[in-house]
Amino acid sequence: MSKASHTLSALAIACALAASPSWAGTESGTADSLTMYGITLYGTVDVGVSYQSHGSAFSDAAATNVNNFLIKASNKPNTSLASNGMSLSTIGVKGREPLGADWWGIFQLDTGFLPASMTLIDGLRSIARNNGVPLAQQKSYGDSSRAGQAFNGKAFVGIESPHYGTLSFGRQPTLLNDGVCKYDPLSCSLAFSYVGFFGATAGTGDTEDRALDGTLKYTLKRGLFHGGVMYQFGNARELSSSRGSAYQLDLGITYGPWSVDGIWARKHDALAVGGSLTAGQVAALTTPGSSTYGLPVDKTLPGTVSDNTSYTLLSEYDAGRAKLFGAYEHIRYVNPSSPLPIGSQTIGGYFIIPSNSAFPRPKILEVAWVGLRYAVTPSLDFFGAYYRAMQGSYAKVSCSDASSPQCSGHYNALSLVLDQRFGRHFDVYGGVQWSKVYDGMGSGYLQRASFDPTVGVRIVF
After folding, report:
1. Which terminus of the chain faces fewer neighbouring Cβ atoms within 10 Å, N or C?
2. Helix, coil or strand: residue 304
3. Which residues, at least 6 apart from 282, have a Cβ–Cβ distance to it below 8 Å?
4. What does the pLDDT look like over 38-62, one tens digit per residue?
């Protein structure tokens, strides 16, 4: 049975369960709860139509089906069905059971999917399908921490206490991802948020590290203070499908209308897959004597390996009907202390042709944003946000033009969105974002700017 068929079957079962009287209101006391015996079925379906003034063709694997923001392959006007514009479509189960003495056992399993194509999200497959394809002819693509795994979102177990916090282990979003999405006015929307679509901000510099396998995560809230620590057993291959360990620390305070968090994060052997194999690299896979001979064309990708460190400051001011947001992140990339060999495997079982020396000097990427969320009426919200990413030159000889991706440059994005809610479980949204790339950050791009409106509907259960 194909992956798409497995997904369709899972969704059909979920819908049947959701409609079943045995799940409606059992033990929860509410007419629309899907909880029975302490286990809750939950999900989101988000689908719409998107237009890009400079975009790429529909993909059945990329996280939104289309490239809502300007990327290197963005080329010509494109109108298409699109998934996950405002939030990720997911289906999952979670549980919370009493253990005694005010302790609870918890677990959560979920997966992200594409309602416009009825397939699981597989960012690496969206890139691999362009292997050997000229840039102007490539379909939409994007690196992701979701690579077609059965549970490509969360898969963890843990314990929690109102006094001592929560300790969990497994595959789970990082503290940095939690913080970035909490303080982003658009909550990491894939159609409208720069930090949602380009996951490097929430992934300590690389999108694949927004969620990590084999992580031990502890969070605590006491009075004005909240925070957490996280560690990834990245070098224990039986626990994690990604290489390299990771560490994160979050310290925050909530006082009156203010909430502020500071997050430090480090990831060893971080991996970024920014594009597909060239025609020459594809040919080498079937050429005896080549260092990459024998690797599968549909499962092999080029990847940049680095050791990354980030410092992030996040803030929110709650003024009642309006919430104001501001954030800044500083990310430093250096060549890995433990280079990866050719053919190393990563998430989803994909093979990597690594670049272990991409940074002649440390690369510094700074990302900042400001925005607001305003309640126009009790059921209508307005969102506005401005994002700016700034890259310093890391070439041996500094440069500030588009001659090389190692030159300094920046990326601007502006988003405006309206979201109308019709009850607790259904809403309709529409908005537009404009993005433009400058100098080194736009090296090799086919276009320099794009205008991208999207409308959609979202159902939450």
Report:
1. N
2. strand
3. 131, 132, 297
4. 899 999 999 999 999 999 999 999 9
Q: Which long-range contacts (CB under 8 A, 24 or more apart) does 233-241 make?
A: 234/268, 234/269, 239/213, 239/214, 240/212, 240/213, 240/214, 241/213, 241/345, 241/346, 241/347, 241/348, 241/349
For residue 225, CA distances in Å to 142, 176, 182, 230, 316 come to 36, 17, 16, 17, 15
Q: What is the pLDDT of residue 33?
A: 66
Instruction: Report yes or no: 404 and 443 within 8 Å, Cβ to Cβ.
Output: yes
Q: Three-class SS of residue 142?
A: coil
Among 211, 266, 217, residue whose Cα is nearest residue 241: 211
Give 33's contacts (C-beta < 8 A, 6+ positions apart).
24, 25, 26, 40
User: Mind listing the pLDDT tens digit for each residue in 396-426?
Assistant: 999 999 999 999 999 999 999 999 999 999 9
Other C-beta atoms closer than 10 Å to the C-beta of 214 total 22
Q: What is the dihedral of CA 140, 146, 147, 149, to 10 degrees?
A: -140
Residue range of the domain that includes 289: 3-460
Contact criterion met (CB below 8 Å) for 315 and 325: yes
DSSP at 148: S
Residue 356 is part of a domain; what is its CATH number? 2.40.160.10
pTM score > 0.85 for this model? yes
3-state class (DSSP) for residue 107 = strand
The mean per-residue pLDDT over the stretch 151-161 comes to: 97
Query: Rounded to whole angstroms, what are the CA distances from 278 to 132, 297, 388?
Result: 5, 11, 30
Residue type, 311: Y
- CA 388/CA 368 separation, integer angstroms: 5
pLDDT band at 27 (very low <50, low <70, confident <90, very high): very low
Number of domains the chain is built from: 1
What is the separation of C-alpha 38 from the centre of its chain, rounded to a whole number of angstroms? 29
Collapsing DSSP states into helix, strand and coil, what is residue 306? strand
Distance separating alpha carbons of residues 233 and 276, to the nearest angstrom: 28
Which residues is 216 bridged to in the sheet?
169, 231
Q: Which residues contact 13 (CB under 8 A, 6 or more apart)?
A: none
Distance, CA of 10 to CA of 238 (rounded, Å): 27
